[in-house]
Specification:
The complex is a heterodimer of chains A (139) and B (179). Chain A is α/β, with parallel strands linked by helices. In chain A, strands 2-1-3-4-5 form a five-stranded parallel sheet, sandwiched between helices. In chain A, helix 2 crosses helix 3. The radius of gyration of chain A is 14 Å and the shape is globular. Chain B is an all-alpha fold. The longest helix of chain B is centred in the N-terminal third of the chain and has 24 residues. The N and C termini of chain B lie far apart (52 Å). Classes of the chains: A alpha/beta (139), B mainly alpha (179). At the A-B interface, helix 1 of A face helix 2 and helix 3 of B.
Chain lengths: 139, 179
Amino acid sequence: MDHPLRVLLVSDTPGHTAGYHVVARGLRDAGLEVIAGGYMEPPAAAEAAVQEDVDCIGYRIMDRDPLALVSSLMEHLGRLGARDIPVVVGGIIPRPLHAALYRLGVVGIFPPGSRLADIVECIRGHRRPRPVGGTSPVG
Amino acid sequence: MTAVADPLGGSWCIEHLTDEVEKRAWQVYEELERLGPERAWREMSAQGHEAAYQRQLAIERGERVVVGVNRFMTPPEEDDPVLELLARDTRRDPPFDPAWREKQIKRLMQVKQGRDEAQAQAARRRLQEAYRERANILPPTIEAVKAYLSIGEICGALAEVEGWEALRKRGGFLLRLYG
């Protein structure tokens, strides 16, 4: 059987966690495994993602520059040879930054008002490719 | 209307509902008191998260209407000049004048030179004292601001008491900036 998709949820600053917890709960209720990293800097988030062998990183960004944070996260994932872990961002992401974030390799952007079902679908659709002989492909 | 202290005073409906809110609030308060601070905090955040989750589910089912979120949506504005500014590559094309950094530092230095240093240091000591004794640090913080201590100095004064590392762990982002 497939292992449940494992998602690392991190945020750019501590506090204001209502949305973070709503998303964590929504993913869990949809059958995903959530690792609640809480407030983490990009290098620590990349390292945790690798150590926990996650299928996806969910990055809640609210107070800081999304482009700087995401490019730093991507850079550190690359350094750890884990650039294939998909990154989904949520939070206060100004509309004109979306294109630049997709260019950085983000697979989904979920501003306030997003539906939980859409977040789950995005994560399922972009799950990290597993090496042959590892986890069985999506059925 | 605004000249009357309590225009709805005596209204059975309003008075009854007010009493009811008060009664239930006290019940919650007493329950939290009984639990003690540690468990009360956990209980409150658990209830808050649960309420937020149920609210989100109700919005997604369309049972709860939020104007602009699931009803009467406005299409996003494409050419907002402020947002366009944000979309620039800020490393190559900063949306602010880099010389501002130097200007701001100069202004800070001027403030420090112009203030009554003895008063500033006294305010700093009182703040540290209150923090050490775990007393209310708000009045000495206000005093420190009035004596023209900078935010960095105020955070630094607190950090000195228990060490930067401990404070950063609890204090988070703002203190990281000043650390």
